[in-house]
Amino acid sequence: MRITLITVGKIKEKYLKMAIDEYSKRLSKYCKLEIIEVMDEKAPEKMSVSQEIIVKDKEGDKILKYVKESSYVITLEIEGKNLTSEQLASKINQLGIEGKSHITFIIGGSIGLSEKVMKRSNYQLSFSKMTFPHQLMRVILLEQIYRSFRINNGEPYHK
Predict the structure, then answer these.
(1) Within a 10 A sphere around the Cβ of 9, how many other Cβ atoms?
(2) Rounded to an integer, what distance in angstroms lies between the CA atom of residue 58 and that of residue 46?
(3) Euclidean distance between CA atoms 91 and 151, whole angstroms
């Protein structure tokens, strides 16, 4: 299976980079992982709704350049579906059974995803109604993907 993670912005914190590297290494046993970072748009602290749309659209266009036509796209959205770790594992397993061997997860920038990206999404996933820093969300998502492969392979994991 191929997993692509497309994210907005660069990771600056060393501890987050180390965690991402660790989960990337662990995932190499189960899948081919590719992490793509697109540059975030410069945005003023206080934006109007129209300015937010412009920023999201610019970031969205950058994201969509990397989305393959054949890929099953899962966007992380606050209004998405909440799953348990077991349900996410089942979802990933079911996609493989259906012949969808390439899954693309998308994490938007600090103000979210553009309409175009959300329309391209095949599935909307939420980890919580709370807002998390998108850099930290990368680590959380990679850990849950790793946990999913462990569950699907009948390997031990912490509950």
Answers:
(1) 19
(2) 18
(3) 12
How far CA 55 is from CA of 13, 33, 58, 73, in Å, comes to 24, 28, 5, 21
| CB 110 within 8 Å of CB 52 | no
Structure tokens belonging to residue 63: 């994201």
Q: Where are the beta strands (DSSP E) in 41-85?
A: 72-82
Beta bridge partners, 109, equal 112
pLDDT per residue over 12-54, tens digit each?
A: 999 999 999 999 999 999 999 999 999 998 877 888 889 999 9
Q: Which domains does the chain have, with CATH numbers?
A: 2-152 (3.40.1280.10)
pLDDT digits (tens, 9 = 90+) for 76-135: 999 999 999 999 999 999 999 999 999 999 999 988 999 999 999 999 999 998 888 888
Q: Does the global pTM surpass 0.90?
A: yes
d(CA 135, CA 107): 9
